[in-house]
C-alpha cells in the first residue's frame, strides 16, 4: 500500500508498504531515515523512539499505516537545519554520553521530551523518563550527566 | 476506509496477502471485524506489533482502531468512568488517578513511558495474558467490559471475561468498545513483583479495593493462575474482620490472615519468571502490605 507521512515537517510518500510493516521499517528502509535504530523490535530497548504527534513512542510498535496522517518527528528532526545540534545533543557530546552510539538516537528523543517538558528534573524523574531506553554499554552515569547538563543549560538560558 | 492487498514484505520474501483496514467509525470497525474472520484489532500495537515483527502471527488483516475518535476518550457515566478502548495508560495515569486510583497505580507500572503512551487497558483485556497489569485492579473494582459486534452490544462483567490462558469471553466477531470502572469510594492499592521497576512482566501482582460505603472488599490476583482471578474467601474474611467504624491500626493478625487467604486463592505455575512457591509467598506479602497501605489511608482520612 502507499502511505503519505509527515516526517520532520516534510511530506513523504512510501510505496509498496506491507500492511504489517512497522513505522521503523518504513523510516529506515523505505525513506532512508536511518537515525532511528532497529534493535529489539519489541519495545524493550527504546532505540527506535520517535515523536508521534508530539508523544514519544517506539516506532517498531507502530504499524506504519497508523502513522499516516500524523506528525512524526525522528532524531533527524530534533536539531536545527544545516546539521546544527540541539542543546540536548550538544550536552550528550559534552558529557561524553555516547559510547557505541546505538542507543543514542532513542535517548536523544526521550531526553529531549523530558527537558522540554520539565524544568529542573530530579534524578528520579530522569531515571523514570529514560527507563524505556537501554544502553548496553552501560553508560548510564554519563547519560544522566548529559540530561542534567541539558536541563541546567536550558534553565540558565531561561528558555 | 482504506484497504489494500500487497505481496511485498518486510523480510523481502513473498508474503501472505494481508489487509490494513483503518475505519473511522465504530460501525465500520464492526463490519470489518465481521467480514474478515481472524482480523486482528490494533491500537497501541505493543502486543500486536511484536507478534508481527517476529513473524509469530500473520493475521489476514489489521483493523486499526486509532482513527475512531470516540474510542480515544473517557467519560464520567454516573458513578463510573467509561474508558474508551484506545485510551492510553498515560491518559489513565494523568487524568484518572483520582477517580480510579487502583487502575492508575497499575498503569504506572506498565512498561516504559513509550509503552504507556501507546498501550491501552482494553488491549490488555484483548490479549488476555494472566500477567496483564490492568487485570487485578479491574477485578478488584468490579469493572464491566463493553463488547460489540454487528449482532449487537453486550456488557461482560470482568469476572466472566477471562476464560483461560490468553482466552477471553470475546467472540470472534466482537471488539472491545470500552471498559466501565466504578469511581473509587475508598482506598485502592496495587503491587507487582518484577526484577526491576520498568519494562517488567509481572512475576505476580495484586490489587485490593476497600469500599467503606458497602463495607466490602475487592481483590485481584495477576500471574497467579491460568486467568486473573479474585481471592473470594479473602474478600469475605476481610469485609467482616475490618473495624470499619474505627480509626485504629489493623487489629491482631487480620493482615496476616488476609495474606494467607490470598495466597490460598492462587494456583500459579513454575516458569522463567519465578517458581510457584515464590509466587504464592509473594502474593501473601503483597496482600498484607497493600492492605496496610489501604487501611492507613482509610483510618487517617
TrEMBL record, chain A:
PANTHER family tied to this protein: OXIDOREDUCTASE WITH IRON-SULFUR SUBUNIT, XANTHINE DEHYDROGENASE IRON-SULFUR-BINDING SUBUNIT XDHC-RELATED
Taxonomic path: Bacteria, Bacillati, Actinomycetota, Actinomycetes, Pseudonocardiales
2Fe-2S ferredoxin-type domain mapped to chain residues: 1-78
Record keywords, A-Z: 2Fe-2S, Iron, Iron-sulfur, Metal-binding, Oxidoreductase
Membrane-spanning residues: none
Protein name as it appears in the record: (2Fe-2S)-binding protein
GO molecular function: 2 iron, 2 sulfur cluster binding; metal ion binding; oxidoreductase activity
Gene3D superfamilies hit by this protein: 3.10.20.30, [2Fe-2S]-binding domain (1.10.150.120)
Amino acid at each position: 500500500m502507499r502511505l503519505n507521512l509527515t516526517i520532520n515537517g516534510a511530506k513523504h510518500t512510501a510505496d509498496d508498504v506491507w500492511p504489517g510493516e512497522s513505522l521503523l521499517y518504513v523510516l529506515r528502509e523505505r525513506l532512508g531515515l536511518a537515525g532511528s535504530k532497529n534493535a529489539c523490535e519489541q519495545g524493550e530497548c527504546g532505540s527506535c523512539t520517535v515523536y508521534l504527534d508530539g508523544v514519544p513512542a517506539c516506532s517498531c510498535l507502530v504499524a506504519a499505516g497508523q502513522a499516516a496522517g500524523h506528525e512524526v518527528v525522528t532524531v533527524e528532526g530534533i536539531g536545527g537545519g544545516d546539521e546544527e545540534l540541539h542543546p540536548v545533543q550538544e550536552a550528550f557530546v559534552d558529557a561524553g554520553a555516547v559510547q557505541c552510539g546505538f542507543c543514542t538516537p532513542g535517548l536523544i528523543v526521550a531526553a529531549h521530551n523530558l527537558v522540554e517538558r520539565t524544568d529542573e528534573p530530579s534524578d528520579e524523574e530522569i531515571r523514570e523518563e529514560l527507563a524505556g531506553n537501554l544502553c548496553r554499554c552501560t553508560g548510564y552515569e554519563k547519560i544522566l550527566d548529559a540530561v542534567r547538563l541539558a536541563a541546567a543549560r536550558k534553565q540558565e538560558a531561561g528558555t | 476506509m482504506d484497504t489494500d492487498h500487497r505481496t511485498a514484505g518486510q523480510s523481502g520474501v513473498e508474503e501472505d496477502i494481508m489487509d490494513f483496514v483503518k475505519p473511522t467509525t465504530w460501525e465500520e470497525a464492526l463490519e470489518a471485524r465481521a467480514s474478515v474472520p481472524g482480523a486482528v484489532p490494533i491500537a497501541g500495537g505493543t502486543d500486536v506489533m511484536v507478534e508481527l515483527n517476529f513473524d509469530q502471527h500473520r493475521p489476514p488483516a489489521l483493523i486499526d482502531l486509532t482513527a475512531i475518535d470516540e474510542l480515544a476518550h473517557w467519560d464520567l457515566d454516573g458513578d463510573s468512568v467509561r474508558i474508551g478502548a484506545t485510551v492510553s495508560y498515560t491518559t489513565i495515569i494523568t487524568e484518572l488517578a483520582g477517580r480510579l486510583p487502583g487502575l492508575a497505580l497499575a498503569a504506572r507500572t506498565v512498561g516504559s513511558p513509550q509503552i504507556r503512551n501507546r498501550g491501552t487497558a482494553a488491549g490488555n483485556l484483548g490479549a488476555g495474558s494472566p500477567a496483564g497489569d490492568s487485570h487485578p485492579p479491574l477485578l478488584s473494582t468490579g469493572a464491566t467490559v463493553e463488547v460489540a459486534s454487528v449482532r449487537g452490544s453486550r456488557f461482560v462483567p470482568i469476572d466472566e471475561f477471562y476464560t483461560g490462558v490468553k482466552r477471553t469471553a470475546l467472540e470472534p466477531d466482537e471488539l472491545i468498545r470500552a471498559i466501565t470502572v466504578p469511581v473509587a469510594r475508598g482506598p485502592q492499592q496495587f503491587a507487582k513483583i518484577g526484577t526491576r521497576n520498568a519494562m517488567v512482566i509481572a512475576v505476580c501482582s495484586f490489587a485490593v479495593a476497600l469500599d467503606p460505603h458497602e463495607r466490602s472488599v475487592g481483590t485481584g490476583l495477576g500471574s497467579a493462575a491460568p486467568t486473573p482471578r479474585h481471592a473470594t474467601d479473602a474478600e469475605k474474611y476481610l469485609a467482616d474482620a475490618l473495624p470499619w467504624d474505627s480509626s485504629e491500626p489493623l487489629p491482631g493478625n487480620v493482615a496476616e490472615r488476609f495474606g494467607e487467604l490470598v495466597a490460598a486463592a492462587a494456583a500459579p505455575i513454575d516458569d522463567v519468571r519465578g517458581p510457584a512457591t515464590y509466587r504464592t509467598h509473594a502474593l501473601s506479602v503483597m496482600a498484607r502490605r497493600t492492605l496496610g497501605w489501604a487501611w492507613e489511608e482509610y483510618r487517617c482520612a
